[in-house]
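Before surveying the methods themselves, let us examine one representative protein, written as a sequence plus integers encoding its fold.
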Amino acid sequence: MIVAMMVIMNQNEESIPMEVEDVMDKELVPIEENAEVQEKLDEIEKINLENEYSPKEREWLTSGPFQIDRSEYVLGEKIFLRINGISYDEKGQIVFLRPLNSSHYSVYWTIPFDGAERPAFNYYLEPQLSKSKGYCSVDDFVGDWRVVFRGTEYPNLEFKITEDVLPGEEDSYESVC
């Protein structure tokens, strides 16, 4: 019965002739770009050449089960923290200290850890300006930072944030206060 219905349906369809354009012998002509578009493309290429950026190689600075991926960052780069192999009985805090001057630091961010709950995890941190937190300009971030592991005997890690800004992130680091 299904076969009979399909035959009837096929007989009721009208044959629609299709026109196919022969493009095999035709030459493809590129669309002309207007001067304004070309000028913008040239400007973008010039900016890209001026701001040629490639991140530093990962170095993996290590202190016990804690690692950060580089010793130097530019503003706008994320700091990658890798934690692997925390003992079951290890518990504490990972504290990122930002420089206040050549001899004093202030707590920027604290990350708790507990080996009984999670022996391994990853964390990304990107220092950002914040009027409400009092981080008003790039001066609040530029300099030598420390990572301290409270509750452990692991040595501190140190890294530097330079005054350079990741291309495309310039607006994110204009003074907010």
Summary: Residues 1-10 have pLDDT under 50 and may be disordered. The two ends are 80 Å apart (CA to CA). DSSP finds two helices and nine strands in the chain.
